[in-house]
Write a structure and sequence with these properties.
single chain; about 220 residues; alpha+beta; Glutathione S-transferase Yfyf (Class Pi), Chain A, domain 2; 4-stranded mixed β-sheet; globular
């Protein structure tokens, strides 16, 4: 069977989600870097295989799949063990809601296209753009923290094993840290992040572990755990 190929960018939250999902399922993919800031996603070669011009793009089972949540659901349906989703319908609904809170409510307001529009079209300077990012990310993470504190069910976002919601939370926290968002008070989230970073499959998917990360591998390392 042909090994999966993942078109990825080291800092892309969406690509990071899929790297986590693949690693969780024990799948190894060939990583094909797509340099988003350099505009590689707009080049003819990439547009030919993904006219949307977005990462991630996962080639697997003879298919080319896009959109991180759809890819993660595909992995769950075709390779159900270990499970990204809990067995009970209420639990699955809760986990999907948490995942969608990040993917739909937080991420679109601070992805690369949005930030570039703020700079290029609306002429916001770097400080103004960072303030926009920090406001919306912190607002969203505070609500996520509230949900965790109100109904956390175990060591991870849901239950005592990692799952879909954790694959969404880790990339959002990484981007929040790199953009210096104030994470004060997000105590439950901090505990989850520390616990997840002790897992080998999580560390293998970490942005600075990627072949296209800046500098020598490991220069910036992983957060202390």
């Amino acid at each position: 069977m042909t090994q999966p190929r993942l078109f990825s960018y080291w800092r892309s939250s969406a690509a990071y989600r899929v790297r986590l999902g693949l690693a969780f399922k024990g799948l190894t993919a060939d990583i094909v870097p797509v340099d988003l800031p350099a505009g590689a996603h707009r080049e003819a070669g990439f547009q030919a295989i993904n006219p949307d011009g977005l990462v991630p793009l996962l080639q697997i089972d003879g298919q080319s799949l896009t959109q991180s949540l759809a890819i993660l659901e595909y992995l769950e349906e075709t390779r159900p063990e270990p499970a990204l989703l809990p067995a009970d319908p209420v639990g699955r609904a809760r986990v999907r809601a948490m995942a969608q809170w990040i993917a739909c409510e937080i991420h679109p307001l601070n992805n690369l296209r949005t930030l570039q529009y703020l700079s290029r079209n609306l002429q916001l300077d770097a400080d103004q753009r960072s303030a926009w990012y920090a406001h919306w990310v912190r607002e969203g993470l505070l609500k996520f923290e509230q949900h965790l504190q109100e109904s956390q069910t175990g060591d991870y976002c849901h239950g005592d094993t990692p799952g879909l919601a954790d694959c969404l939370l880790m990339p959002q926290l990484f981007n929040a840290r790199i953009m210096k968002v104030d994470l004060t008070g997000l105590t439950t989230m901090a505990r989850l992040e520390s616990r997840l970073l002790r897992l080998d499959w999580v560390r293998s998917a970490y942005p600075y572990s990627q072949v296209d990360a800046p500098g020598e591998a490991g220069d910036l390392g992983l957060p202390a755990v």
